[in-house]
Every structure is written in C-alpha cells, then in structure tokens.
Design goal:
This protein has 329 residues and is α/β, with parallel strands linked by helices. It has a single domain, classed as TIM Barrel (Alpha-Beta Barrel), CATH 3.20.20. It contains twelve helices and eight strands. The chain has an eight-stranded parallel beta sheet, covered by helices on one side. Strand 5, helix 6 and strand 6 form a beta-alpha-beta unit. Bound molecules: NADP nicotinamide-adenine-dinucleotide phosphate. NADP nicotinamide-adenine-dinucleotide phosphate binds next to helix 11.
Length: 329
C-alpha cells in the first residue's frame, strides 16, 4: 500500500480508503459478519482511512467501525486509523435547494449536538474529520456553518473540517477552498465524471486541501460486472439510481472502456481506481467495500505500477456528460 499527502495536513492516507456506506445499509442484504471481516482485511492490508456518515444505516456503519477499531486496539495493534464521518442537513431538500437557508440546514446547536452523537457512535472524544454531507452554492458568500465548525475545531472537538460535494454542482466547493473554509473535499471523480480535472482538483492542490474521491465505480457499473439485465433488490438504492434506461446506457459506456482495456492487463476495477490515482491532487480513493474479496481486489491496486500515460489519455475520452441533453444519450 502506498501513502499520499492529505493536502497540507500532517497525515498521510493510504491510496485506497474504505468506503463504508454499504456496510451501513441501503445496498440490499449485508451481514455485519461480512462487514467486520471486510474492514479488518482492508486495515490488515495497510488501509488507514475509512469514510462513513451519520446516514449510513443511521449510525450502523459508524458503530461497526468503532467495534473493529476497539477490538484491534484490545488485541494490541498500534495503528492510527483515520475516520472521516459526515453530518447531514437538519432540514430542507437533498441536495439543498437555492432557497434553503444555512441557518435552517446547519444551525449551530444542531451541529454541536450532531457531532456529539458522531463521537459517541465512533467511540471517540474528537473526530478526525467531520464533513458536511451536502451543500449549496447559495451559502458560499456567507458560509456560516463553517465559521461555527472552525469554532468547534478550536474547542478541540474536531481535527479537520471538510465538505462532500453536492453531485449536481461539485464546483460549488471551489470558492470554499479558496476562502480557506475547508481542509478537505470529497468529490465524485471517475472514468465517467471527469469534470473535476477542469479546475477543482488543481485548486485543491494550490490551496493545500485534501481530496477524497468517492464513487470510483459509479456505484458498481465501472467494475464491468453489470449487464443491461442486472436486477437490484428493492432495498438496494441502485434499483432507483439505475432506473429506466440508465443501467443499459451506463453498461454501454462501460463496455467501451472494457474494449479500451483489452491487452492492457488491467481488470475494470483496477483501471477505474488506477486512472483516478493518476491525478496527483488525489489524496485517497474510497471504493465501497462489502467483502474480504473486495478488500483484497481494491487494496491491491495501490501496489500495481502507475498507469501508462497513453492509457490515461485514451481513457480521458470516456468522460460522459450525461447531464447534458444536446449530445443525446
Ligand atoms: N454524498 C456523499 O458524500 C457520498 C455519496 C456516495 C458515496 N460516498 C462515499 O463513497 C464511498 C464509495 O462510493 P459507493 O460505495 O457509493 O460506490 P462505488 O465505490 O462506486 O461502488 C462500490 C460498490 O461496488 C461493488 N464493488 C466494490 N469493489 C468491487 C470490486 N473490486 N469488484 C466488483 N465489485 C466491487 C460493491 O457493491 P456490490 O458488491 O453490491 O456490487 C460496492 O459496494 C461510499 O462507501 C461512501 O463512503 C459518499
């Protein structure tokens, strides 16, 4: 496992972190036994960064992480595992509408109380990294929630402060980075969603902001294992994410990438992760991991040789602007 700088902060995350959404819920059946085993395997392989959130099973993901870290400490392991969690808005739409007010979504008392719950679930006195789970550009000119989080940081409740981008307007965090409000950003950056390479990633580097990359597999389709006929359980959020013709369209685009990889020696999951790691502004990629086999496959990618430049450039052509209608489907 290789380690990288986390912006200007005195911590070096493993290139592969552990995305802990699915172990909390919303992804169909998931046993705690599998989740605990997957977490332990990833940490044994050198992963030192876990991303979770209040909303992942209403604390279930956080509590599983706490259990693993407690058990490992009790068994005498001397390791520092960095845990990033998230606070959702108290009210309003998701993502926040341009008319939602920061005072309603992230009021001071709510933030303070929510952080206390995060600490209790994770079994810590102080969070390594607290991320606001979503945001709107409407609050950039007066980012009051971050003013209060800086205050809590000075009180010692928080290590670092971050933001997870609203997926429909990821560039809204650029002004927050330039204003010094956030220590890290969590973004969607993958073979389909390459827009952060236009500006966001460079600004993060200039500002010394840590970059956490989520959804490296576009919720699984970039592993190449789905077909247009794949069915998701009703309690798997992907039944909605890939509703209608979305799955067939995404699979068709993923199949083009499969062709690009013929003869390269890369599997789809390896190429998806390695391509993201080819950008030097990226601090840590956090693939969602549910099983020991996925921990092995994903953590192993760090040790592969760097992706050759011609392949990096070839895969840039797979940028898919699926939110724009003029290009059709
Ligand atoms: N708004 C936010 O802040 C936000 C939103 C989304 C995610 N996140 C964070 O980012 C993390 C990663 O995103 P994600 O989990 O949504 O999606 P992802 O990383 O794109 O996809 C993860 C899923 O792909 C499958 N998978 C993983 N490794 C695989 C492999 N090697 N081969 C084949 N299949 C594999 C697993 O599901 P199956 O085995 O069921 O296919 C896994 O749950 C989350 O866990 C969470 O921590 C944050």
């Amino acid at each position: 496992m290789n380690y990288r700088p986390f912006g200007q902060h005195p911590f070096n995350p493993s290139e592969i972190g552990f995305g802990a959404w699915a172990i909390g819920g919303s992804w169909g059946a998931q046993s705690d036994t599998d989740s605990l085993a997957a977490l332990n395997r990833a940490l044994d392989l050198g992963c030192n960064f876990i991303d979770t959130a209040a909303g992942y099973g209403n604390g279930r993901s956080e509590k599983l992480i706490a259990q693993v870290l407690r058990d490992r400490a009790a068994s005498g392991k001397k390791e520092k595992i960095f845990v990033a969690t998230k606070t959702p808005p108290a009210a309003g739409e998701w993502p926040p509408s341009p008319y939602d007010r920061a005072d309603d979504c992230y009021p001071d008392k709510y933030l303070r109380d929510n952080i206390t719950t995060r600490c209790a679930n994770l079994g810590v006195e102080r969070l390594d990294l607290l991320q606001l789970h979503t945001w709107t550009r409407a609050w950039n000119r007066d980012p009051k929630p971050f003013k209060f989080l800086r205050h809590l940081q000075r009180e010692g409740r928080l290590g670092l402060i971050g933001i997870s981008t609203p997926e429909q307007d990821q560039n809204s965090v650029i002004d927050l980075m330039r204003g010094g409000w956030v220590d890290s950003v969590q973004i969607i950056y993958n073979l389909f969603e390459q827009e952060p390479a236009a500006e966001l990633l460079d600004v993060a580097k200039e500002c010394g902001v840590g970059v956490i990359v989520r959804v490296v597999f576009d919720e699984g389709v970039l592993t190449g294992k789905f077909t247009a006929d794949t069915k998701f359980a009703d309690d798997d959020f992907r039944a909605k994410y890939f509703a209608g013709d979305r799955l067939a369209r995404a699979v068709a685009h993923a199949d083009e990438i499969k062709k690009d990889l013929i003869g390269t020696g890369y599997t789809m999951p390896q190429a998806a992760i390695k391509w993201v790691l080819s950008h030097s502004a990226v601090s840590v990629v956090i693939p969602g991991i549910r099983t020991i086999a996925q921990a092995d496959a994903n953590c192993g990618v760090s040790d592969l040789p760097a992706m050759p430049q011609p392949l990096i450039e070839k895969l840039r052509r797979r940028n898919w602007r699926r939110g724009v209608w003029y290009g059709g489907k």
